[in-house]
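Incident log, structure service

09:12 report received: a user says their structure output differs between two submissions of the same chain.
09:20 pulled the input from the user's history:
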Amino acid sequence: MNNTTTNTEANDAAAAAQHLELLDAVTPEQVSDAIKAAGAAVTTIEQNGVVRLHSASHGVGFQVLWGNPVTTTQYTDFTLSCPLHVQGGTLPEAVLASWHRTKRFARVAQHGDLVVLEMDVVVAGGVSPAYLAFAMRLWMQMMGEFFLHLRNYGPAAETRGDAANGGAVGEAARGVPAAA
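09:34 re-ran on a clean worker, output below:
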């Protein structure tokens, strides 16, 4: 009886250890699996010996930009990046400022006629696989909220105090294919 209890306890301890397994670096395969777990398809492209991941959420493409390498296939951080081409020039500074005032986790930068939504994911120090999957879901939520922000932004919406203005800003931003 003690032997059976000991085996059960050992199995429980092994299962608990798997749940407590921390990642202090990630591979493209682990990030790809996390993106898939969040409900998106992933395209893997190898360029110059580096695996690049491309995916999409809300019908708009994004890419994974690798950060600090531990080995040639492991990284301690990465950036999720969604470049958008702005038709007709640039977005008003107030659009970006409003996003940064009201949102956390993802930042927006303007580079000429491109607006880039980005979110850093740091695994250095150790994170659980569940955190990695959560980070992907959060990124996809941030993408959706940013697209809504663009669609609803406008001087009329601000003065009315609502988000009913579907002005030109929402029509101006379109996703562009991720550049390698």
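09:41 both user submissions now match this output. Likely a transient worker issue. Closing.
09:42 reviewer note: The beta strands are 42-47, 50-57, 60-66, 69-71, 74-75, 77-86, 107-111, 114-122, 173-175. Residues 158-174, 176-180 have pLDDT under 50 and may be disordered.
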